[in-house]
Backbone:
């Protein structure tokens, strides 16, 4: 057992699993609701997603007691935390306008959509696809890569952009995306039996 941690054996086992995944090989594909009339097409800003978090999943639990003698923690529901996306902003503020218009689609608070009424749920949700690439994906080898889809997704938080005379950093902002569930597919290693995952 101790021999499993020898460098050569360790690296061999890692390579059999496709190597260690790197966090900078990803892409984000935003699919807004079909009823959203935005002045910015999502496909023109997808590549400006600077960072994104892979979704988390946990169980809400309660304590079950039997005769007062012992207690068990048992799950009763699945909970999902919002996914954070950091977007680079551009000089024409296209990314910012896109997300702001999605917010206005959910609840109009000014201008032509200033009714303050909430849109129907199915009319303001879309989806977000996060593709996690391996190095081989760049060579277009089939059967590799891992994709996460956030279903019934909608933006729940749009962060501020802090400006300052002394600050010449790139302009960026954060979006929190809420969703009903997520599914994952792919991840198979070339020349091995396909093993799709669903969560």
Residues:
């Amino acid at each position: 057992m101790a021999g499993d941690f020898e460098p050569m054996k360790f690296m061999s086992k890692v390579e059999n699993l496709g190597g260690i995944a790197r966090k900078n090989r990803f892409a984000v594909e935003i699919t807004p609701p079909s009823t959203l009339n935005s002045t910015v097409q999502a496909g023109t800003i997808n590549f400006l997603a600077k960072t994104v978090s892979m979704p988390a999943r946990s169980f809400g639990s309660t304590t079950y007691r039997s005769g007062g003698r012992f207690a068990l923690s048992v799950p009763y529901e699945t909970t999902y935390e919002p996914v954070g996306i950091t977007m680079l902003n551009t000089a024409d503020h296209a990314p910012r306008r896109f997300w702001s218009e999605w917010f206005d689609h959910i609840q109009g608070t000014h201008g032509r959509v200033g009714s303050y009424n909430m849109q129907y749920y199915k009319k303001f949700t879309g989806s977000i696809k996060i593709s996690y690439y391996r190095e081989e994906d760049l060579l277009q080898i089939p059967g590799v890569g891992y994709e996460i889809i956030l279903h019934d997704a909608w933006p729940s938080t749009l962060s501020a952009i802090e400006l300052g005379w002394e600050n010449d950093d790139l302009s960026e902002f954060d979006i929190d995306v809420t969703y009903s569930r997520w599914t994952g597919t792919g991840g198979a290693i070339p020349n091995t039996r396909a093993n799709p995952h669903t969560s």
